[in-house]
Amino acid sequence: MGMPFTTHQRLRFCDTDRLGHVNNAIYAVMYEAGRAEMLEQAGLLSPAAGRGVVIARLEVDFLREMNWPGEVAIESAIVRIGTKSFTLRQRLSLNGEIVSRAVSVLAVIDTETRRAVVLEESWRADFERWLDPDFT
Amino acid sequence: MGMPFTTHQRLRFCDTDRLGHVNNAIYAVMYEAGRAEMLEQAGLLSPAAGRGVVIARLEVDFLREMNWPGEVAIESAIVRIGTKSFTLRQRLSLNGEIVSRAVSVLAVIDTETRRAVVLEESWRADFERWLDPDFT
Amino acid sequence: MGMPFTTHQRLRFCDTDRLGHVNNAIYAVMYEAGRAEMLEQAGLLSPAAGRGVVIARLEVDFLREMNWPGEVAIESAIVRIGTKSFTLRQRLSLNGEIVSRAVSVLAVIDTETRRAVVLEESWRADFERWLDPDFT
Amino acid sequence: MGMPFTTHQRLRFCDTDRLGHVNNAIYAVMYEAGRAEMLEQAGLLSPAAGRGVVIARLEVDFLREMNWPGEVAIESAIVRIGTKSFTLRQRLSLNGEIVSRAVSVLAVIDTETRRAVVLEESWRADFERWLDPDFT
């Protein structure tokens, strides 16, 4: 069973909005920041690979407000590896409290044809260190 | 049956990312831009009201890439009005093609206590012009 | 004498910050949005051209706050065409009032070597429709 | 002589643009992120104080491109304290290399009247730990 991939993002003043708290769209920014670092480490964002990862669906639950300043922990785990897609569960924490959870479905495409391709075995191996079907 | 609330957003150069297309998080920015203008017109973003609207959940389906430059049409319709929350369906179009769909669940809070309150009748009336349970 | 290049940007809710107004960094976003559309129309953002435009310096004067919602007019004029660089003056208006002015110095580079190159005559011709040394 | 105020920001995937590098407007975001944390530590962003800080002018020199992923060091020093305004010099570094320098002029306002006020002695004292007229 793998461990979640964890990275951190320091909130920026411009992440706030006129309601005083961190803007809702920043949650999506944070989830992408974590996802992209995970995929980068797996070598999947290198154009040389001829493969790319696109997001097909994102579900976000907003549990608590976030306030600037602070540092957000972004945890990501792979909960399902399919034939042409995989599913990620992620969560955001601030000051030790979970403030949001998300599920995203990602597809792998051929960067030339822009069509979904079958997930290669080597990628599956890369992914397994972050595979935890029970992560929530 | 109401009509969807429609607004437009011109893409900005910084909405793109190094994959060449419009960044995924910008879809969430667009949905919020449309939602906020709708709530503003309904008078729900005025602090004087003592009521605020917070987002509890967002689901986004990414159907197509968007490329800069261009102007995005954001359509929003209310599909359900509950006791303390309401549900919005939205979609984004670029050059006449639907590129994304979203569902969001919004709660109404007392801006003092930060707790969910019952939706007032006057708000329901405001909302009904955008109520279309069949909008997808 | 050319006319300034003009484009518009509708403010987004997330452009605001917890001070209630539009965040300062959004002014830079707006200037870039205007600049990039001007360069795109001049054909300078096409990778096929083998030439690129990079910004060397940006000076922004903040004259007034901007408040959401609203639509910003972005005017851009070329005030100087040098050998390897050119200078732009820009201004932002909201509700008919000038809220900010900016000057930027842009260099033209070879996209392969990443080095500054001499501005080609054909570009100068493209630029002259927006050339107004007296624009402020 | 004071030390510069230093903070760090991890680049986000969405900070990139379709030119492949970190977008120019993000430099302004970074400078604000550093400035705001410095002002927050000095207690100047607290609404209770009845005083606020607004930016009057920003000058940015872009020395090098930044590439994702990475962590940006933001250094800020006060180089001048005037009667109603003060001047900041800042710089951004990535991987130990300075990538940008900036100068900003900030004014102190009464948050009620929105007018510039004289800088209080207590603020001057707060600022002196970051005062370094020779910082570049």
List keywords for this structure.
homotetramer; 136 residues; alpha+beta; Thiol Ester Dehydrase, Chain A; five-stranded antiparallel sheet; 39% strand
What does this structure look like?
By secondary structure, the first copy, chain A, is α+β, with helices and mostly antiparallel strands. Chain A has one domain: Hotdog Thioesterase (Thiol Ester Dehydrase, Chain A, Roll), CATH 3.10.129.10. Helices cover 19% and strands 39% of the residues of chain A. Chain A has helices spanning 24-41, 121-128, and strands at 5-10, 51-62, 71-81, 85-94, 97-110. Chain A has a 5-stranded antiparallel beta sheet with strand order 1-3-4-5-2. The longest helix of chain A is centred in the N-terminal third of the chain and has 18 residues, at 24-41. The radius of gyration of chain A is 16 Å and the shape is globular. The two termini of chain A are 14 Å apart. Chains in contact: A-B, A-C, A-D, B-C, B-D, C-D. The interface between A and B is medium-sized, with 19 and 19 residues.
End-to-end distance of chain A, in Å? 14 Å
Helix content of chain A: 10-25%
**Main sheet of chain A, how many strands, which sense, barrel?**
5 strands, antiparallel
Largest interface: A-B, 19 and 19 residues
The spatial strand order of the largest sheet of chain A comes to: 1-3-4-5-2
Q: What best-fitting shape of chain A do the alpha-carbon axes yield?
A: globular
* Class derived from helix and strand content of chain A: alpha+beta
Question: What is the average per-residue confidence, as pLDDT of chain A, rounded to a whole number?
Answer: 92
